[in-house]
Protein: Large ribosomal subunit protein bL35
Amino acid sequence: MPKNKTHSGISKRVKVTGSGKLVREKTGKRHLLEKKPSSLTRRYAGIQEVAKSDVPRMKKMLGL
Structure:
């Protein structure tokens, strides 16, 4: 039986915490930052938990 391969795109974007939760970076802070208000760019900082509805699909892609 062959092994399942981890989806390389998801593995770069999503990390698994010690308790098993999936976390990701927030979108919107890569480019065109000059025109965005500072309040908005501060809001984009940090990590966020993956939406509950997306978790099963992402776990399958990660091979968990």
